[in-house]
Amino acid sequence: MTQFNSRTSDAPVDPMFLDRWSPRAFLRDPISEEVLSGLFEAARWSPSCFNEQPWLFMYADRSPEIETYRSILVPKNLVWAGNAPVLSIVFGARRFAKSGKENRWHGFDAGSAWTSLALAARRAGLYTHAMAGFDEEKAYELLGVPKADYEAMAAIVIGRRADPAVLPEDVARNEKPNDRKPLAQVAKRGFFMDGV
């Protein structure tokens, strides 16, 4: 398997941020309980509004549960994500636990937790890929998570990277780290004048 990553940054940054990317070729090799617990532990320590920690990572890494999780993915994603040894759906709590009021920051906070998980996975020699391509209604129904209380945010695969040759040709063509917008387009000092 060829390893490559030609990403470059516009400003000095820890290489772990350039190293993290979302492949589609995964080995079925299982992830140990200790390593997997460490990933969710990293997510647990993410910052959140009022320290509510409104995320909930439901996951499966063995049969028969993982087959249920696979059935939640849209067919286009199942083609490649079906090989991953761990599938997760991350949910955000719609209301603050302490006050019962709407928590409009739950998605922001769940995103923070997902990033911590993704970076911890790379430190452990693993890769992750989050996706929007899943059936939200099925996620609520099959996983038993109450829709009134939680919003299904994303599906996530976790595993070791495989040779892109395991992918269908049309998917394998794009199996490389992508680039980012220039820094000046995503961070501006002062006031918004010229648009982004």
Question: How do the strands and helices of this protein lay out in sequence?
Answer:
Elements: H1 15-19, H2 33-44, E1 55-60, H3 65-70, H4 75-81, E2 86-93, H5 106-123, E3 127-131, H6 136-143, E4 150-159, H7 169-172, H8 183-186
Antiparallel strand pairs: 1-2, 2-4, 3-4
Helix pairs in contact: 2-5
Give a verbal description of the structure.
- It contains eight helices and four strands, in the order H-H-E-H-H-E-H-E-H-E-H-H.
- The chain has helices at 15-19, 33-44, 65-70, 75-81, 106-123, 136-143, 169-172, 183-186, and strands at residues 55-60, 86-93, 127-131, 150-159.
- Strands 1-2-4-3 form a four-stranded antiparallel sheet, with helices on both faces.
- Helix 2 (33-44) packs antiparallel against helix 5 (106-123).
- The longest helix is centred in the middle third of the chain and has 18 residues, at 106-123.
- The relative contact order is 0.22.
Q: What does the overall shape look like? A: globular
Number of strands: 4
Q: Helical percent range?
A: 25-40%
Number of helices: 8
Please outline what is shown here:
By secondary structure, the protein is α+β, with helices and mostly antiparallel strands. The protein contains 8 helices and 4 strands; from the N terminus they run ααβααβαβαβαα.
